[in-house]
Amino acid sequence: MNAPQKVSEAVAAPVGILAELTHRCPLACPYCSNPVELDAREGELDTETWKRVFSEAAAVGVLHAHLSGGEPASRRDLVDIVKHCHDVGLYTNLITSGVGISEARMRELADAGLDHVQLSIQDAEAQSADRIGGYKGGFARKMDVAKWVNEVGIPLTVNAVIHRANIARAGRMVEFAVELGARRVEIAHTQYYAWAYLNRKALMPSREQVEKAVAEVEAMRKTYAGKIVIDHVAPDYYARYPKACMGGWAKRTLNVTPHGKALPCHAAETIPGLEFWNVREHSISDIWFNAPAFNAFRGDDWMLEPCRSCPRKHQDYGGCRCQAMALTGDPRNADPICHLSPHHDKVAAIAATFEEVDANVPATDYVYRTLKTQAPVA
Amino acid sequence: MSDAAAISPESKPHLPRGMHLKHDETRGEWLLMAPERVLKLNAVAVEILKRCDGKATLGEIVDQLAAAFAADRERIETDVRALLAELAAKRMVDL
């Protein structure tokens, strides 16, 4: 996998860094995109190392710093880190559940130069939201945090992950985001990796539910034009062509885990044989241009047919490497979402599991995300 | 607010918090930084947005540009209205 290979185009500078400051989180959402094996508090990068990482990222051309987790507010040095990002010229985005942010801390974050807050909601109703997140009182806290974000004048995006327990309110969540004062809302159907993969039987909605929800959210673009911007990530199981995952492998952004491992995408560790470098040993520039995992799927020399001769290969880059790995066993294959893939039947098999969903059975049987106990293997 | 012709000449457009003009040294270009977005700006857009300070009215911005570039006022007004309407629809400019 990591044999030296020619990168056919010049590698452009990265535009974004997603910093998983910690995997600690008071919530326990069963669809969390963090890996099932979470990084423990011991071993998290310290403040000075994160600052160096952001300085190096800015120097190599990164524009956006996305401070994520886990819950980034679980880090006591969050304000300090935000201030540093601001000082080195990064546009700083906080991706938070809201839990751990008091009114005073929100003001400190604003004074430190925070540019944008992305607040997750689990549902538009308190009881259901708190059950999904596995945290009582979380919903009420989010309402407060949204208010404080508006008071300090930072633009707010509300983010909702859609699955069976909340899909009936997909459209309602757009309205709810408007009520919370958001300028942007992300409605993202669950992608079945990591924790969501473990919980897919409880999370998957029926095809009928998906189609209804997608239509409902699309109709709201017109209703709320100029009021709120809707970013809608629909499930791709029914698509003919794959998405340009990550805008191309190691083409736009990089992730850094709490322990300092640099990844081309958050699921990259599901691909066996890739060699990842750690920010403790390498600079961001060195990692971006030279780390074997980053160069593994750059350019198009790695592609197999049908991608290799496909006129769309520089449009969708063959789709998602991790999905190709998960469903075909070889990350160089075309993402099997593509109808041209010889493995496309595997996607049909997944789509068929949607058909078996009995939407009347409540989704309750979650393996909640947790640091402490080992999650059962699916 | 997304209709270009409907913007009042008295409107005082400005970039809300979380939106910045940035000259990017790495790429040698002007960018409009937004939540989860980066827009590359052409020279005309940069000159317009530099003047959107929340103090100058739309009419004053058009006057300034017409004077600075010795260009046809009507044509400039069309450009300014089009850009502001587009950005306002994306919630990237407040009118």
Helix content of chain B: 25-40%
Q: What integer is the average pLDDT of chain B?
A: 92
Indicate the structural class of chain B: alpha+beta
- Tell me what portion of residues of chain A adopts beta-strand conformation: 5-15%
- Helix share bin of chain A: 25-40%
Write down the oligomeric state. heterodimer
Specify the overall morphology of chain B: globular
Nearest-angstrom radius of gyration of chain B? Answer: 13 Å
Q: Main β-sheet of chain A, in a few words?
A: 9 strands, mixed
> Rg of chain A, please?
20 Å
Largest Cβ-defined interface: A-B, 24 and 20 residues
- Indicate the low-confidence ranges of chain A by residue numbers: 1-8, 374-378
Record field, number of beta strands of chain B: 3
The number of helical elements of chain A comes to 14
Average per-residue pLDDT of chain A, rounded, comes to 91
Which helices and strands, and how do they pair?
The complex is a heterodimer of chains A (378) and B (95).
Chain A: E1 16-20, H1 47-60, E2 64-68, H2 78-87, E3 91-96, H3 103-111, E4 116-121, H4 126-133, H5 138-152, E5 156-162, H6 170-179, E6 184-189, H7 194-198, H8 200-203, H9 207-223, E7 229-233, E8 253-256, E9 262-263, H10 284-290, H11 292-295, H12 313-316, H13 321-328, H14 344-355
Helix pairs in contact in A: 1-2, 2-3, 3-5
Chain B: E1 20-24, E2 29-34, E3 37-40, H1 43-50, H2 58-69, H3 73-89
Antiparallel strand pairs in B: 1-2, 2-3
Helix pairs in contact in B: 2-3
